[in-house]
């Protein structure tokens, strides 16, 4: 009797496993179908034109920060392009196998990114995503200003406004590196603004922030 019971249990487990596999396969089938709507037929990749079409379907602007969040969720490696594998990674994580589900997932994605640990990862990803050339380690100041406004403008508007004003007015720095990029985020979190009362240039701040603080204080007089 025990053997018979074991066989039934094994059969039930196998059936459940088979059902789960079929469900997963069906989910990927839907995700892949959605990918093919926007992918270029010759390269089998969603290119900038495809992303514009995707934005239109999502009813969001091409420059909307939520598109960057979507790229982060996909772990997209190349700016303006989504591979099938990246698309699968993102949409499976968002549990979105249709356009209507993807639309509904965006507000939850925004909430996820707003969590401090996730935002830190997203913020560093945003910089890496803008490195469009092999071995590139910096982004130009104009692009850095646009990106800062996009990813930090809502959270730290006054700091971003003044910092980008400084960056556009100075001539010493032509590009920004990752250390400077991450340093500014730490600055926003740790230094009271506009008083800057606890800013100490003797501490390990990037030089660009020392210069910004000096410029800001001079302009406050």
Automatic annotation (TrEMBL):
<dbReference type="GO" id="GO:0000151">
    <property type="term" value="C:ubiquitin ligase complex"/>
</dbReference>
<dbReference type="GO" id="GO:0031624">
    <property type="term" value="F:ubiquitin conjugating enzyme binding"/>
</dbReference>
<comment type="function">
    <text>Neddylation of cullins play an essential role in the regulation of SCF-type complexes activity.</text>
</comment>
<feature type="region of interest" description="Disordered">
    <location>
        <begin position="1"/>
        <end position="22"/>
    </location>
</feature>
<dbReference type="InterPro" id="IPR011992">
    <property type="entry name" value="EF-hand-dom_pair"/>
</dbReference>
<dbReference type="Pfam" id="PF03556">
    <property type="entry name" value="Cullin_binding"/>
</dbReference>
<dbReference type="InterPro" id="IPR005176">
    <property type="entry name" value="PONY_dom"/>
</dbReference>
<dbReference type="InterPro" id="IPR042460">
    <property type="entry name" value="DCN1-like_PONY"/>
</dbReference>
<dbReference type="GO" id="GO:0045116">
    <property type="term" value="P:protein neddylation"/>
</dbReference>
<feature type="compositionally biased region" description="Low complexity">
    <location>
        <begin position="7"/>
        <end position="22"/>
    </location>
</feature>
<dbReference type="InterPro" id="IPR014764">
    <property type="entry name" value="DCN-prot"/>
</dbReference>
<dbReference type="GO" id="GO:0097602">
    <property type="term" value="F:cullin family protein binding"/>
</dbReference>
<feature type="domain" description="DCUN1">
    <location>
        <begin position="26"/>
        <end position="217"/>
    </location>
</feature>
<protein>
    <recommendedName>
        <fullName>Defective in cullin neddylation protein</fullName>
    </recommendedName>
</protein>
<dbReference type="GO" id="GO:0032182">
    <property type="term" value="F:ubiquitin-like protein binding"/>
</dbReference>
């Amino acid at each position: 009797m025990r053997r018979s019971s074991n066989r039934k249990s094994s059969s039930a487990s196998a059936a459940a496993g088979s059902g789960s596999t079929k469900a997963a396969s069906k989910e990927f089938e839907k995700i892949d179908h959605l990918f093919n709507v926007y992918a270029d037929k010759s390269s089998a990749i969603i290119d900038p034109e495809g992303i514009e079409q995707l934005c239109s379907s999502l009813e969001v602007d091409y420059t909307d920060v939520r598109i960057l969040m979507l790229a982060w969720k996909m772990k997209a490696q190349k700016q303006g392009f989504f591979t099938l594998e990246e698309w699968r990674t993102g949409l499976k994580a968002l549990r979105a196998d249709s356009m209507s589900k993807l639309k509904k997932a965006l507000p939850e994605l925004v909430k996820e990114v707003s969590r401090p640990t996730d935002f830190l990862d997203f913020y560093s990803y945003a910089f890496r995503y803008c490195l469009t050339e092999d071995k590139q380690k910096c982004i130009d100041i104009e692009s850095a200003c646009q990106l800062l406004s996009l990813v930090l403008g809502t959270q730290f508007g006054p700091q971003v406004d003044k910092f980008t004003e400084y960056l556009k007015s100075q001539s010493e720095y032509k590009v920004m590196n990752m250390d400077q990029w991450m340093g500014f985020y730490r600055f926003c979190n740790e230094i009271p603004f506009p008083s800057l009362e606890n800013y100490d240039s003797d501490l390990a701040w990037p030089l660009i922030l020392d210069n910004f603080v000096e410029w800001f204080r001079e302009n406050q007089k």
